[in-house]
Every structure is written in structure tokens, then in C-alpha cells.
Amino acid sequence: MSFDDDPPTRRLPVPPREPGHPREPLPPREREPVPPAPGGGATDVQLYALEQQLRSLRSWLVALAAIAVIALAVAAVALVSGGGDDSSSDGTQTPASLRKSVARLESRLDDRATKGDLSDVKDQVTKLQSSVAAAVSAAKTTTTTTTDDGADAASLSAVQSDVGELQDRVSALEQAGAATGDTTPADPSAP
């Protein structure tokens, strides 16, 4: 970088323009390089100019660093606080609200029955149906071997009607579960 030791010059007067002719640009002024100071070092003027440029650059860097730190602090506070509501003004959700939604959905999943639970209930219903059928057949054989008592016949018909009702309720529950996709197990001990 070279610096001019000459004092600034005044502007040359611009010649008047003739009507109809465009103004011609002035030829560029060539500068002569400044010879280095004796001993190969820089002059006081060059050192002063360089020092002023460094000060200016340093002040710009400090200002830029301050702006960057402030922007980083604002971004960190916004990220940590989550914005305070469930969604921002443009409709997107903040990380904190997304975490709350995931936790709420996971708690709902814990309350739901799984396919294994449903198959267990179906197995219990099948076992109950087979035991009821065995009891009915045992009651029929007992009835046929014993005397035809009116009380036994009435209790047998009551048991048969109860078994029929249970089978109707089980099939209704299975159909309702299949129609709604609900996998909540039915309580087999409920009447």
C-alpha cells in the first residue's frame, strides 16, 4: 500500500460544453509511487494511516461481535422457553409444545389394549363357551338320567337361556369391536 505525500490538489476547471457535443471525460491522473523512506521503513504518515485503518477495523469487529452475541442470546432464550404457547404465529409448533403432544399421546397409548390383550380375551371367551357347553351337555345327561322333576327342567331352561344370552352378548361385542376398530378388552366377568 502506498500513500501520497503530496498535499491534496484542487480540482481542475471543467471546460465549458459546446451545445450539441457531449462532454469528454478527463484523462485519468497517474500517480507516481512514493519511494520508501530511507532505511526501508515506513514513514510516520504511512504508519499513522495504517493505525487509523486498524482502529476502524477493530471497532467494526467489536460491533459485529456484539450483534452476534445478542442474536445468539435471543435465539437461545426462544429455544429454551418454547415461545410460551403451543404454536408460533406462523402455525408451526415449538419444540416444547411438540414434547407435550408426544407425552400426551404416549399416555393415551399406555391405556389402550394391544392385540395380545384382545387375543387373550378371545381365548377366555372361547374357554367360557366350551365350559358352558360342557355344563349344558352335563346337565342334559343328568336330566335324562334323573327323574323328570319340574324344578330341574326349569333350572335347565334358565341355564340354557343364560348361555344363549351370553353367546349373543359375546358376538355383539366382537362385532362392535370389529366395526369400530376398538381393541379395548371386554370384561368377561361382567354380566
Write up this protein:
This protein is mainly α and 191 residues long. Helix content is 61%, strand content 0%. The protein contains 4 helices and no strands. It has helices spanning 44-81, 95-111, 115-145, 150-180. α3 runs antiparallel to α4 (150-180).
Write the topology of this structure.
Elements: H1 44-81, H2 95-111, H3 115-145, H4 150-180
Helix pairs in contact: 3-4
Key traits:
191 residues, mainly alpha, 4 helices, 0% strand, rod-shaped
Précis, in short:
With 191 residues, the chain is mainly α. Helices cover 61% and strands 0% of the residues.
Whole-number mean pLDDT: 75
Intertermini distance? 100 Å
Low-pLDDT segments, ≥5 res: none
What value does the Rg take, in angstroms? 49 Å
